[in-house]
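Methods: holo model generation. Sequences were used as deposited, without trimming of termini or removal of tags, and paired with ligand SMILES retrieved from the corresponding compound records. Each pair was processed once, and we did not select among multiple samples. The sequence and flavin-adenine dinucleotide SMILES for this entry were:
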Amino acid sequence: MIAAMSTPRPLDFFDCASLLGPEDLAIRASVARLVDEKVLPVIRACFEEHRFPRELVRELAALGLFGASLQGHGCAGLGAIASGLICQELERGDSAIRSFVSVQSSLCMYPLHTFGSEEQKQRWLPAMARGEVIGCFGLTESQGGSDPANLRTHARRDGGDWLLSGSKMWITNGSIADVAVVWAQTDDGIRGFLVERGMPGFAATEIDNKFSLRASITAALYFDSVRVPQANLLPEARGLKGPLSCLTQARYGICWGVIGAAQACLAQLLDYTGSRELFGKALAQNQAIQIRLADMSRRITTAQLLALQLGKLKDAGRMTPAQVSMAKWNNCRMALDVARDCRDMLGGAGISAEYVPIRHMLNLESVITYEGTQTIHQLAVGRELTGHSAF
Ligand SMILES: Cc1cc2nc3c(=O)[nH]c(=O)nc-3n(C[C@H](O)[C@H](O)[C@H](O)COP(=O)(O)OP(=O)(O)OC[C@H]3O[C@@H](n4cnc5c(N)ncnc54)[C@H](O)[C@@H]3O)c2cc1C
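and the model returned the structure below.
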């Protein structure tokens, strides 16, 4: 029997919600409420003013959204689907808010949890979960983020300490972070260091001329012979696989997050095309418009199904980096194309900040670039298929 679609679900055409458990649905609803009540009322002004809404950090912490997928040390220990839904709802508000939570959770708390000593975990994780300590992740350097093996920041032993020198570029949360997870070359290969705000020789400068992610802080970090105690070395991280494993976690969240951005754009466009009259009828009554709307819905739906399966693989411990690469590539491309199409179909109104697509579109230019560009993820999938690394 074929069921009639009694209630149209334009943002969930294949009823993915029916695949979610009651806990996942409750978490999604509480994050959605936070976004509706606290993020959406301020985010447009933040974007225009190039300001991160720091006042939201305690609200995000109160819902347990920092380190939500980690177990113990004040973290919620949620499954992969719930963690993904958190990202999806946050990015429905703005990619900047999801980026903040991703960096705090996947790029700072995750390496502490996975590679840190017990003392480091106790010192940092509960305070980070409460939002009292903000973290950042310093891997990229100005000579090329796509080639992280070419790190020039280096640390050498000096007595019982390390002396760290170099610089990092494009670091989310960099100038407000209390602690930076910094990846550097050593005589023993790439190692991770916890560099604390106020350590002599450590400076951060905000990059304030961005046209994208304007409600997020991005900074350059500078290290001039910063003395880092041995206690601040992540003992269990060795080689590039340390930072790359953090990026796999964060990219997983991006795969979900960008769906929320695309949904926000399509939701507004459906309203607009339903009410705007041109040539004596609603825009939505035109075949050409309907085909484009249908295509956006198709693209969002396939991204949702991909994210759900990726989440199931992650929970089963079977998710591979190449699968994450394909999903990050597909879902970011989907969201950016949907946002651009929505902006176009709003006509002149599409360039106004009164409508969300242009803000999401500009943000998604960063999201498709950071944590591996589309090309790099295509090459990662190509390597998986052929066994040859082309980069
Ligand atoms: C807003 C924002 C926030 C960020 N936050 C962080 C952060 O918190 N921490 C952090 O460490 N980094 C961060 N990044 C850095 C980000 O990960 C890098 O920008 C990204 O990896 C790309 O590196 P790049 O900018 O140096 O570009 P490049 O590596 O110079 O790439 C330039 C172009 O060349 C292409 N390319 C590269 N190699 C190949 C190849 N072999 N074949 C074909 N094409 C190729 C790329 O796809 C791209 O189009 C952030 C970036 C942005 C924009």
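Residues 241-275 form the longest helix (35 residues).
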